[in-house]
Amino acid sequence: MDKLVRDGRDMVAGMSPQLTEGRFAFVDGPEELLAQAIGFFREAEGLSLIVPAGLAPNAMVMRCITLQVHSALDGVGMTAAVAGALARAGISCNMVAALRHDHVFIPETQAEAALAVLLALQRGAVTR
Fold it and tell me: What are the CASTOR ACT domain coordinates in residue numbering (predicted)?
């Protein structure tokens, strides 16, 4: 198992962002799609799902960049650094924190640009 990282700068320095295979969409339920979802959250208004884009032809197509660092759930700073860097580049993102890694969903048309921004952010953290 990878070392659990808590320090924000160390998380950014070790994030090694990778564009994952697949195209995804965020949708509002239905429960029938739950088995095909890569992620979900039950909100007061209903079930939010992250599904393969082919299951949601009218939804915005997203790509996912997985941050390879094993970030601690109580680690501070990486989400803010990643979202801030992308915002400064004019790239919207939806952050999903899982147990082992953080995942950054961005519009498909901005995936390569987002990856370049995150790689530059990582290089900056490593050289400090």
Answer: 63-118
- Beta strand spans in the chain (E): 5-7, 18-19, 24-28, 39-43, 46-52, 62-67, 71-76, 94-97, 102-107
Tokens standing for 34?
């739950």
Closest CA to 27 of 42, 7, 6, 47: 47
Helices (H), ranges, the chain: 8-13, 78-88, 111-127
38: helix, strand or coil = coil
Hey, what amino acid is at 69?
Answer: V
Of 127, 118, 28, the residue nearest 64 (C-alpha)? 118
Q: What range does the domain containing 45 cover? A: 24-60
Q: Is the pTM of this model over 0.90?
A: yes
* Cα–Cα distance for residue pair 24/53, rounded to 1 Å: 4
How does pLDDT run across 98-127, given as a tens digit for each residue? 999 999 999 999 999 999 999 999 999 987
Q: Are 48 and 69 in the same domain? A: no
Structure tokens at 113: 């640009």
Residues 9 and 66 in one domain: yes
